[in-house]
Amino acid sequence: MRIVGPTGTGKTHQAYGAIRTLLAAGVRLRWEAITAADLYARLRPRPGFDSERDLQSLMRCPLLLLDDLGAAKTSEWTEELTYRLINHRYEHLRPTLITSNLTTDTLRAALGDRVASRLAQMTERVTLDGDDRRRTRPAA
Ligand SMILES: Nc1ncnc2c1ncn2[C@@H]1O[C@H](COP(=O)(O)OP(=O)(O)OP(=O)(O)O)[C@@H](O)[C@H]1O
Ligand SMILES: [Mg+2]
């Protein structure tokens, strides 16, 4: 599932809600949630750290929430990393939840045709619209 829509419309909230519903229904699986920005920071190559192993673990994770895809600054490296992660999950039919602010066209521009094409096939798009809940909520 790919939840898209403007900022603050509740995409992350809904994605965690979906995971909670699965767990509450008794589905027992290993799941991980990470924002795309954290993913790139975590896997950045650095001495003494095997980022390949970390990437493999995310590739194989039975349920992955990739939050805010397309929000982080992109580069050839992030494009390649995203491609490897998405392609692996695509080929192995691993359930993947995506949230993104980007429309299909801007996602394609940010992450490349190969990622966009796989996402279009492997995820069902759900669009949230409405106001930014962070702004419209009364101050506590
Ligand atoms: N259904 C809901 N009921 C009550 N509060 C909600 C609901 N959905 C979201 N919120 C609250 O609204 C705020 C924004 O929600 P959330 O972080 O899920 O938005 P988002 O679409 O992921 O935003 P962004 O694109 O900036 O990541 C959060 O404080 C969240 O707790
Ligand atoms: Mg969010």
> For the terminal residues, how far apart are their CA atoms?
33 Å
Biggest β-sheet: strands ordered side by side in the sheet: 2-3-4-1-5
Average of per-residue pLDDT values: 94
Spell out the helices and strands N to C. Answer: EHEHHEHEHHEH
Q: Tell me the CATH topology.
A: Rossmann fold
Number of strands: 5
- Distinct helical segment count: 7
Q: What's the story with the biggest beta sheet? A: 5 strands, parallel
List each distinct ligand once: adenosine-5'-triphosphate, magnesium ion
CA radius of gyration is: 15 Å
| CATH top level assignment | Alpha Beta
Name the overall outline.
globular
Helix-strand makeup class:
alpha/beta
Instruction: Name the CATH homologous superfamily.
Output: P-loop containing nucleotide triphosphate hydrolases
> How many domains, in number, for the residues?
1
User: Residue ranges: pLDDT <50 for 5 or more in a row?
Assistant: none
At CATH level 2, the architecture is 3-Layer(aba) Sandwich
Provide a descriptive summary of the structure in words.
By secondary structure, the protein is of the alpha/beta class. It has a single domain (2-132), classed as P-loop containing nucleotide triphosphate hydrolases (Rossmann fold). A 5-stranded parallel β-sheet has the order 2-3-4-1-5, sandwiched between helices. The chain is globular and about 45 Å long. It has 7 helices and 5 strands. Helix 3 runs parallel beside helix 4 (76-91) and helix 4 (76-91) runs parallel beside helix 6. The structure holds adenosine-5'-triphosphate and magnesium ion (MG).
